[in-house]
Amino acid sequence: MTAPVGLVAVDHVQLAAPPGSEDALRTFYADALGMTEIPKPPVLAARGGCWFAAGPVQLHLGIEEDFRAAKKAHPGLRVTGIEAYAARLESHGVHVTWDDNLPGHRRFYAHDPVGNRLEFLEPDA
């Protein structure tokens, strides 16, 4: 019997960052977002960048020489306790922008220190 074929999950989301931004990324993703930096395989670590995880969620930040932050594209990150999570980010100096245009959800947007847009959302109770 053969195993079914098909997508089963998103393994990670890759975002780009400019050269030399790793320290700022670590401060944002580890300190402000509360993620844990995970080691990159040595062959990939030589390229720079950094990877982060929180539970099953992984965000990989890769270095791009002619980096330009995406203005519209973004990962949508589901959170619990969205009000407290937004307050956590604000306490780290991160500007959050609330958006009430998604029925059945509370959500806000924020940008990482290199300009990548991130969406944070929680379904209504």
UniProtKB/TrEMBL annotation:
It comes from the Bacteria. It holds the Pfam family Glyoxalase_6. InterPro entries: Glyas_Bleomycin-R_OHBP_Dase (IPR029068), Glyoxalase_6 (IPR041581), VOC_core (IPR037523). Residues 9-123 form the VOC domain. PANTHER family: FAMILY PROTEIN, PUTATIVE (AFU_ORTHOLOGUE AFUA_3G15060)-RELATED. This is Glyoxalase. It comes from Streptomyces badius.
